[in-house]
């Protein structure tokens, strides 16, 4: 049996989503009949992408003994003009924080997530052009 989530309609455009690991609300923007009481479906897709690649990278860096103090992943998606509006371009910005960052290992971890491990990334590739950038914010060594 595959993975399953359940959603329950709660009126207007609001749904409750019961997922593997927790639940949350999904809602439309007010201009589309929602009340803004939950996350937007397309934004969830970008969030899934960031979560998937982020978990890969943190796990890989731990195995490589190249841990970082922090990682931010900013994802920007550009939609098509026509309906159904889908992401045509996606940009991921990885920002690594720490001191004495092992940049070669960080870049290898990002590449492995991008090209081999992140299933969400591969799904996005079916319909969007993906670009990535890595930035470093080095803290001074004590």
Quick rundown:
The chain is of the alpha+beta class.
Care to describe what's here?
- This is OsmC family protein.
- This protein is an alpha+beta fold and 142 residues long.
- The chain has three helices and six strands, in the order E-E-E-H-E-E-H-H-E.
- The chain folds into two domains: 1-39; 41-138, K homology (KH) domain (GMP Synthetase, Chain A, domain 3, 2-Layer Sandwich), CATH 3.30.300.
- The chain has a three-stranded antiparallel sheet with strand order 1-2-3, with no helix packed on it. Strands 4-5-6 form a three-stranded mixed sheet, with helices on one face.
- Helix 1 packs across helix 2 and helix 1 (41-63) packs across helix 3 (119-125).
- The longest helix is centred in the middle third of the chain and has 23 residues, at 41-63.
- It is elongated, with a radius of gyration of 18 Å.
- The model has no long low-confidence stretch (mean pLDDT 96).
């Amino acid at each position: 049996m595959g993975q399953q989530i359940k959603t329950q309609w709660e009126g207007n455009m609001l749904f409750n989503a019961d997922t593997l690991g927790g639940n949350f609300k999904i809602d439309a923007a007010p201009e589309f009949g929602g009340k803004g009481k939950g996350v937007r479906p397309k934004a969830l897709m970008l969030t899934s992408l960031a979560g998937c690649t982020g978990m890969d990278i943190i796990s890989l860096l731990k195995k490589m003994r190249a841990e970082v103090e922090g990682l931010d992943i900013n994802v920007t998606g550009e939609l098509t003009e026509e309906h159904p509006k889908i992401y045509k371009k996606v940009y991921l910005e990885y920002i690594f924080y720490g001191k004495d960052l092992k940049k070669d290992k960080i870049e290898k971890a990002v590449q492995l997530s991008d090209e081999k491990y992140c299933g969400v990334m591969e799904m996005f590739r079916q319909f969007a052009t993906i670009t990535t950038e890595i930035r470093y914010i080095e803290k001074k060594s004590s």
